[in-house]
Amino acid sequence: PQGSQEAKAFVNAFLKHSMPKMKDDAIQDILTRKAVVLEHYCKKKTKQKRKKTKGFTAKQRREMRLFEIEPEQQRYAIFLPLHELWKQYIRDLCHGLKPDAQPLMVQSKLLKADLHGAIVTVTKSKCPSYVGITGIILQEFKHIFKIITKEDKLKVVPKLNNVFSLEIDGFISYIYGSKFQLRASERSAKKFKLKGTIDL
């Protein structure tokens, strides 16, 4: 064990090292009060910012023509297998589309389903030229459907002010485009109200 002198010398040396800015008189003054508070500085941890993976902007996608379908690919027959895949996808989604299936259940599933590959018909429209257009949906955007018809013509049909009918295994569903102005990814999370709507 250290003697009193050695202990005093150790404490003085320790305090001088711990508080280099303070003078000896000030340290002795603190010691006479029999309480020493040592200052402690914590180093702030710098949070590393996560780098967000940057995708293409809308302008870049347009310039690269990512969503454009080449004229030689605009043929109805090419996309018939896609329609067959879509029908199987809907059957699996609705557990077989049996005759005793609840229409509201099927309707709610179709509202959130991916429509790429579905055959739709414009049944009502404020623009008469759209009425009767039938074809396979190739692309769905927030405000429009791109549809390929049996005549191998690519039609761009707006959702606004149009009513579309969709038929699968004898079940006919109507889509009110004005209430359907969402991207396909947004529709899957949206809660649709099962109420009648006044449109057109």
Summarize the structure.
Its main location: nucleus. By secondary structure, this protein is α+β, with helices and mostly antiparallel strands. The chain has 6 helices and 6 strands; from the N terminus they run αααααββββββα.
Description of the molecule:
The protein has a domain at 74-189: Ribonuclease P/MRP, subunit p29 (SH3 type barrels, Roll), CATH 2.30.30.210. It is built from 6 helices and 6 strands, in the order αααααββββββα. It has helices spanning 4-18, 24-32, 58-64, 80-93, 103-112, 184-187; strands at residues 119-125, 134-140, 144-149, 154-158, 162-168, 171-176. The protein has a 6-stranded antiparallel beta sheet with strand order 4-3-2-1-5-6. A hairpin with a 2-residue loop joins strand 5 and strand 6 (171-176). It is elongated. The mean pLDDT is 81.
Give descriptors for this structure:
200 residues; alpha+beta; SH3 type barrels; 6-stranded antiparallel beta sheet; 6 helices; 6 strands
Decide which structural class fits the backbone.
Answer: alpha+beta
Mean pLDDT: 81
Q: Which class of one domain in CATH terms?
A: Mainly Beta
Radius of gyration: 36 Å
- What is the level-2 CATH architecture name of one domain? Roll
Measured by DSSP, the beta-strand proportion falls in 15-25%
Keywords: Nucleus, Phosphoprotein, tRNA processing
Function: Component of ribonuclease P, a ribonucleoprotein complex that generates mature tRNA molecules by cleaving their 5'-ends.
Pfam family, one: RNase_P-MRP_p29
Protein name: Ribonuclease P protein subunit p29
